[in-house]
Amino acid sequence: MANAYDPATGAGLDPATQRLLDRRDRVLGPSYRLFYREPVAVQSAEGLWLRGMDGRAYLDAYNNVPAIGHSHPAVTAAVGAQIATLNTHTRYLTDPVVDYAERIVAKFPAPLERVTFACTGSEAVDLAIRTAQYGTGNRGLIVTEHAYHGTTHAAAQVSPSLGPNNPVGDHVALIPSIDTARAPAHEVATRLLDSVSAAIADLNERGHGVAAVILDSVFSSDGVQVEPAGFLAPVVQAVHDAGGLYIADEVQPGFGRTGEWWGFQRHGIVPDLVVLGKPMGNGVPISAVVGTVAAQERFGSEVRYFNTFGGNPVSIAAATAVLDVIEQDGLVEHAARVGGELLSGLQSLMGDYERITDVRGAGLFLAADLGSRDAGLSPDPELAARVVNALRDEGVLISASGPAAATLKIRPPLPFTSNHADLLLEKLELVLRRETRA
Amino acid sequence: MANAYDPATGAGLDPATQRLLDRRDRVLGPSYRLFYREPVAVQSAEGLWLRGMDGRAYLDAYNNVPAIGHSHPAVTAAVGAQIATLNTHTRYLTDPVVDYAERIVAKFPAPLERVTFACTGSEAVDLAIRTAQYGTGNRGLIVTEHAYHGTTHAAAQVSPSLGPNNPVGDHVALIPSIDTARAPAHEVATRLLDSVSAAIADLNERGHGVAAVILDSVFSSDGVQVEPAGFLAPVVQAVHDAGGLYIADEVQPGFGRTGEWWGFQRHGIVPDLVVLGKPMGNGVPISAVVGTVAAQERFGSEVRYFNTFGGNPVSIAAATAVLDVIEQDGLVEHAARVGGELLSGLQSLMGDYERITDVRGAGLFLAADLGSRDAGLSPDPELAARVVNALRDEGVLISASGPAAATLKIRPPLPFTSNHADLLLEKLELVLRRETRA
């Protein structure tokens, strides 16, 4: 995992942090990992800022869950009112889930017109897989070789980025990560289509058939790949021709981050199933699958699905507040505008620092590759780790990502302003100057 | 599914309910099902009572999620304070998750000493399966033939109660449902052990080996099977001898419902992994796997697990309030006492109504079989459906369960009092008198 705290090589921590860490290690399971060479202990958060237990303020340029900002009063008010009134499940009739379902479905192009609620992106991916496999009668799934789609058994099987010990299923065909920094723009769509076509042939040969291709609409774990817009379109046709579905994983790009409501929109496509998660409730657990009736009917009528907490009125209240604020504050357009400014700033830095080998982004989902400008644009994960940790020490939180873990990933809450962008760029330049001194 | 609303045979609904239902059907996925011949539309809830949109009060004798009562002010206060302060994930250090982890782990016997958080019981079951399979190197899983363990792909594969279209994996061996009404008490443990031993042999023969046996500690979906206490003990030894783990599914029995903190305690066993869910946050999504270091170490260190919403401070705040209230109000002892009274009342009704063929329970998890007192105790699912729906019309909510869907399942929030029990018994007698007139 990129940017994980390593107790063996970690810095000497202050005594209070070390005590909390020791207590944590004694009671939490061995799966837990922390971010940063020196983990950040957090006391509170508001808007774009985390307040550390060390008393310092950290600019959050990484968390896409608190989409409308940390501790947003609209979420606090909505959740507080609902939890004092009613919190139950969808086997009773309640108003809030229906009201919200109508609003969220209206954000999608026809025929994406039905929504099923769960609690996490992983659960929604898992449900989309079950729906696609049962509906098509096929088992095969196509994902990129550095994909991340979740942590349930079925979602982890399509998440090779979890590492070599995480078993990828025999029914899964991996296609090469898209790499727009190294591919000529006019070849991105062709290469992707060729990869998908080969995967389809492979799955058919192995007797699995094609249930679905699952693609994160901005390829978050593949290093953020967004240009040229439209490169996903041929994939939809190819997977349909093979009898499979197109599943758009919008857990990371969804809800306005890319400067449009959904990341798939910039490619001009209409998926069969769309998976929503992280930002949906600003941190209150809620996720969903939005899909066509055709894609969902067979599974829904013959197998069914019930998630006790899925669509509960309290999670729905949080999600409703998120929609309200995104709409009222114009955060989709805001993400496009400020994201554009930040991308320009990164491009300008790239002009001054040759160790930045590519920058790219859509709205407030941005990436900068670090490495050498040789023929292969050799990535430098050590430099990326140094930059991420130096920025943390300067009070700015981002992380590293991508197949080589050499891509800086910048993904702040949506109310990130031009001033925040300026601060980030200023600190990034400071750190680059220091860390790239030859 | 027992007790599902069927639009084809459903009663004519009042216009407001029908309008809400129509709106719901237009936007929710085809998987959704409602309870009762006439669905209950809910406006608000407090303590043991749901308030319907029809203005009526319904005694909730069925929902085990609002464990400490609907809309409990302690949960409202805790969630409200935390959500206004901080809600983030476990890759930063925060106090609440460590404080809670220490408290929850202390509720378990050694060596159950580490906890991993997720959001739903299904996710926790899924994680326990991944942990067991990776840790043991085996794939095989043993569950009862009417088990329900969840809705992710992997959890649904061990949930045959979801029906014939829900595929059970080849790596899953089913053992007969325990049926304490039809088995002599002294044979329950022997029969179960024989079944498990046969399943172990079967899985070994099919080359899967044994990763785990997964048993709901009160067999909720198998009709609630609780006596004689201790019958689970031989299973633990058998599965260990086969190289597998014992996973206790405490999503339904956990948190005091059975009159002890955990359902497995009445059997005097110590599982390797324990799955927690539903009542844990009184409706705010949170779940967990509690386990030994030995059972979790290999998966945790070599594969890892991260759940974005798992262990978030807001869900943890709700869970902390639940622990506080259970402890302060003595709800474990309360469940034992009132559950005992209710069981006596059901036994007394069984003396008067021969269509009740068995009653049983542990704490506030109770069951009554309906059928004929012939040699096979033939179950009567139609009578059970009539009783459940007639009780609903009388303002008391329970449901039907079990392999034959002929078992009344009674599972109220824990603050259910003797007065509530009297009301339930009075209404049940009224309904039985009417529905069993020959």
UniProtKB/TrEMBL annotation, chains A, B:
For this UniProt record, the keywords arranged alphabetically read as follows:
Aminotransferase, Pyridoxal phosphate, Transferase
UniProt-listed InterPro entries: Aminotrans_3, Aminotrans_3_PPA_site, PyrdxlP-dep_Trfase, PyrdxlP-dep_Trfase_major, PyrdxlP-dep_Trfase_small
CDD domains associated with the record = OAT_like
- Which domain of life does this protein belong to? Bacteria
Key word Nucleus present: no
Single GO MF descriptor: transaminase activity
Task: Name the protein family.
Answer: Belongs to the class-III pyridoxal-phosphate-dependent aminotransferase family.
Protein name per its UniProtKB record: Aspartate aminotransferase family protein
**Organism expressing this protein natively:** Leucobacter muris
